[in-house]
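Sample entry was shown:
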Amino acid sequence: MITFNKETLRDRIHACWIGKNIGGTMGTPFEGRRQINDIQGFSTPEGVVLPNDDLDLQLVWLRAVEDLSPARVNCGVLGEYWINFIPPHWNEYGIGKNNMRSGLLPPLSGEYKNDWKHSNGAWIRTEVWACMAPGCPDVAIRYAREDACVDHGAGEGTFAAIFVAAIEAAAFVVTDIRTLIDIGLSKIPEGCRVARSQRLLLDCFDKGDDWKTARNKLVEDSKDLGWFEAPANVAFAMLGMLYGGGDFKRSLILAINCGDDTDCTGATLGALWGIMHGTAGIPEDWKAHIGEGITTVAIDRGSIAVPDTCEKLTDRVMAQQPVMLAANHVGHVRICDEADHADEADVNAFRGGAFASQLCALPGRSCSFDFIWGGATLVYEGEPEIGPGGSVTVSVTLRNQLPDPKHVHLRWLLPEGFTVSGGRRDVCLMHWTDPTHAPGAVNLTFTLTAGDVVEAVNRPVLELVCAGRPTVGYIPVTLLG
């Protein structure tokens, strides 16, 4: 059982947002520079908080949780909130929104024709999930993945978000950066580029390389990916933590001096430091320089009300913690008036796990659906494109989500001229605890073939009628002409 003292927890979440603003404001003037920087502190006037989309998007995610409850928030919901409340079209942001407007659901929206899916847009916005689920890395990574896949699909940007969210949620209990990095690495594929950059960083640190040598090795190793990509930039943030020697100012300056996406590396390091050490761990002069305010740049403020100070943001996040923990059936965390407590077994439980493996195994060219009695995952075997007379193959995995066996009738609703082959018209989903089956799951493969004419957007629909159940399931298979 992990116990958090409510006031101490509140202080650490408050420090997270102050640290986020400090790092973002200090790093923003140097964003995009490819050389090593030589900053010594703020280059901005006192009392000025520079706007940063790293924090902005999290204010929208908080609103989604408040509006709908954590149990209903998924990539589809976050995609709708993207379109409603987040105007910028920068890089993966614009690609993800354009794909959704064309009818492609997440995570396909973040996968299709997205040269930015390995970039930084997702790992920089994970603190809200960690702060609503302190001491619960698997809860935090669940929402971080739902969030990231909207505009990063199954790219390195999504692995980076899972890595950072796990570290931040664990940092409410663990304050050793090496242990935190190990926990983060245990949640992502060993062969992904984010993991490779972290291992390279640790190797440099352990061999005694200075920080500039480590930084240059990270840049060279990520040369094939280019700039503004997640693997090297996440490593720059961790470089600051490792080489900073426990000093906040030195840690933040080192991360920003690595160059590249400096507002992101600085803001994430500042937020993580706040979670680990609370407001007492942030120097008073830097807190005074930045103040309490929140300035936004990436939100449609005419359509959504968001907190305008770190204090108000902290209060709203704290209000959602009991709801988040209850929605995810968390039984190992208590928030109360008692002293903080966690033991070695609690920390060991943070590492790895089948859930993290399942998250990372979900393909980018896919969409998932929930019909209450059952669920389905649609996977495109190629791109979601079709021309006149062309064919596209998709697989559909149907899952039983309630204990009783079910008979399901399948029917295709096709655009004019389309035909379908393969699969079956009727399936039986076995009892979900039957050990002789992959629990109540059936895999089907269909090939859709267009006629002589296709539209700009074509939407064959697979209808699922479960005998004795009132809810009918519909799976749209969006194909761009």
Q: What stands out?
A: The chain has 18 helices and 13 strands. The mean pLDDT is 96.
